[in-house]
């Protein structure tokens, strides 16, 4: 299994380290790469899109050709996980802020997001969440979005204060929080197992 972590912004190294750990735990043959160009996404089974600033990430993805490449990967049924800003970019619909900033969504998951549902940077927090198929996890929210609704085959697997904060669709997974900032590998494991069992 070959997994690419999109290295534009956010906790790229943390995602790489955690994914490598899960590959080792699962006892499978695999590698994790830091992807900076669309060519880096050739011959990968999955991609992880970390957090950061969604407008900046979207512009960089378009500029280096990765935007279309990630959409192609989704069409091919490959695994894609987005955390925080990555969660926003996976959505088909965004809020007024997404429109105002000219953020180009990838539009590959059947969901609508609210970009800053839980407030600004100073409103960051940690909480425990119940995640379907996993159990209770500690979640770090930093200027986090929320999943307002889903349709089609996309479904919410965790909620907080009435908002969706984790969703899956096929081999894709969107998380409004940062699993890479805790020592718990279960969400990355869930993602890789979705790909292996797909």
Record keyword descriptors for this entry.
Rossmann fold, 198 residues, 3-stranded mixed β-sheet, 6 helices, alpha/beta
Biggest sheet: strands side by side, in what order? 2-1-3-4-12-11-10
Query: Major sheet: size, sense and barrel closure?
Result: 7 strands, mixed
Helix content: 25-40%
The CATH homologous superfamily corresponds to Class I glutamine amidotransferase (GATase) domain
Output the number of helix runs: 6
CATH architecture: 3-Layer(aba) Sandwich
Mean pLDDT: 92
CATH class equals Alpha Beta
Q: What is the CATH topology assignment? A: Rossmann fold
User: How far apart are the first and last residues' alpha carbons, in Å?
Assistant: 13 Å
Write down the overall geometry: globular
Portion in beta strands: 25-35%
Q: Based on DSSP secondary structure assignment, what is the total number of beta strands?
A: 12
- What is the chains' assembly state? single chain
Task: List the secondary-structure elements in sequence, H or E.
Answer: EHEEHHEHEHEEEEEEEH
Compute the CA-based radius of gyration: 15 Å
Describe the structure in your own words.
- The chain has one domain: Rossmann fold.
- The model has no long low-confidence stretch (mean pLDDT 92).
- The protein is 29% helix and 32% strand.
- The chain has a seven-stranded mixed β-sheet, with helices on both faces. A three-stranded mixed β-sheet has the order 5-6-9. The chain has a two-stranded antiparallel sheet with strand order 7-8.
- The chain is globular.
- The chain is α/β, with parallel strands linked by helices.
